[in-house]
Amino acid sequence: SQQGEEDPQALSIQEGENATMNCSYKTSINNLQWYRQNSGRGLVHLILIRSNEREKHSGRLRVTLDTSKKSSSLLITASRAADTASYFCATDASRADKLIFGTGTRLQVFP
Amino acid sequence: EPEVTQTPSHQVTQMGQEVILRCVPISNHLYFYWYRQILGQKVEFLVSFYNNEISEKSEIFDDQFSVERPDGSNFTLKIRSTKLEDSAMYFCARASPLSGNTIYFGEGSWLTVV
Questions:
Q1: Over the stretch B46-70, which tens digit does the pLDDT of each residue have?
Q2: Judging by beta carbons within 10 Å of its beta carbon (0-12, 13-18, 19+), is residue B46 exposed, middle or buried?
Q3: How far apart (Å, rounded) are the C-alpha atoms in residues A28 and A68?
Q4: Residues 48 through 87 of chain A touching chain B, CB cutoff 8 Å
Q5: To 5 degrees, how large is the angle CA B73–CA B74–CA B80?
């Protein structure tokens, strides 16, 4: 399998609920980034967590990183219909010259 | 920090034609990247460009592709002799020392090869 795999592949929730998406990777990293993509649009940077960090918050977003398990999670609290999008994790392996993206989680938030 | 601006937003081209996709220049950005995303698939790294040179490229980035930033102007991706399978969204991205390792993406250029 490939560097950066998210699960679940798809997630449907009601507005107000929390959404948790997970990402696993295989090689050592310097940092891990989460991006959001609305259908047919560009990638919006959400949050970057460094390999020496375990948790990071930004508004309703909470990202955790467990380097021993090579995994990360993105939690969106109190979800809104506008959060409907695909969410990708991306890692930089040993070099910061490129990001390796996961397959993404498609989040659907119903009003 | 400003996002990357790409042109065109959408281009339809005949198979075999050459296509040039552009990023609007931001003077203090040092690192540029091209990624692509075939419809419904993951985002794939193509090439990174630093100090007017390619610093890394993927297996996808073969002789059909080239990048340049002539005279510090637009950062371009040229695709020669396009094939149907080149149809994808192409993203320009950038990073600067001020943003640490954060890489910011443009809105993308949809390329449709017919």
A1: 999 887 889 889 999 999 999 988 7
A2: buried
A3: 10
A4: 48, 50
A5: 125
Higher-pLDDT residue of A3, B21? B21
Distances (CA, A) of A48 to A28, A57, A63: 16, 10, 9
Tokens of A99: 């990001």
Could you tell me which of B11, B8, B24 has the C-alpha nearest to residue B75? Answer: B24
Planar angle of CA B31, B37, B42, nearest 5 degrees: 100
Q: Do B48 and A98 touch (CB under 8 A)?
A: yes
Chain B segment 62-81 residues within 8 A of A by beta carbon are none
Find, among A78, A96, A76, the residue nearest to A86 by Cα: A76
- For the stretch A43-97, pLDDT in tens is 999 999 999 999 999 999 999 999 999 999 999 999 999 999 999 999 986 555 6
The residue type found at B33 is Y
Per residue in B71-99, pLDDT (tens digit) is: 777 889 999 999 999 999 999 998 876 66
CA B8/CA B5 separation, integer angstroms: 9
